[in-house]
């Protein structure tokens, strides 16, 4: 099991930090996949190994969404090795992903406990508090 952070909005449940062409609208009881263009580059869906690591990431965020918009779910999926990513070893700049461009963030490191999943199935919602 892994833990994934989401944003709940009028369009449904989406990744907390993915917008535009990088955005996935997640469905319960389905195998959710990343956008095809990111999948073709070797990228998957980001999650955390533990609930504590997900909570730590929320604590590091400079611009947090409202608490009523943010959800954490226990998820399952097949893990992809992050070190095999075709572009760098850092997470990608959100504004570029939204327009369909892969551009590594200057931090060049994944947050502690980050995993990448080939697919993501939502199991149950968990509390961050």
Give a brief outline of the structure.
The chain is an alpha+beta fold and 129 residues long. The protein is 16% helix and 29% strand.
Task: Characterize the structure shown.
This protein has 129 residues and is of the alpha+beta class. The chain has one domain (2-126). Helices cover 16% and strands 29% of the residues. The chain has 3 helices and 8 strands; from the N terminus they run βββαβαββαββ. A 5-stranded antiparallel sheet has the order 3-2-1-5-8, with no helix packed on it. Strand 1 (2-9) and strand 2 (12-15) form a beta hairpin.
How much of the polypeptide forms β-strand, as a percent range?
25-35%
Query: How far is it from the N-terminal to the C-terminal residue, by CA?
Result: 19 Å
- Order of the strands making up the biggest sheet: 3-2-1-5-8
SS-derived structural category = alpha+beta
The figure for the number of domains is 1
Average of the residue pLDDT scores: 81
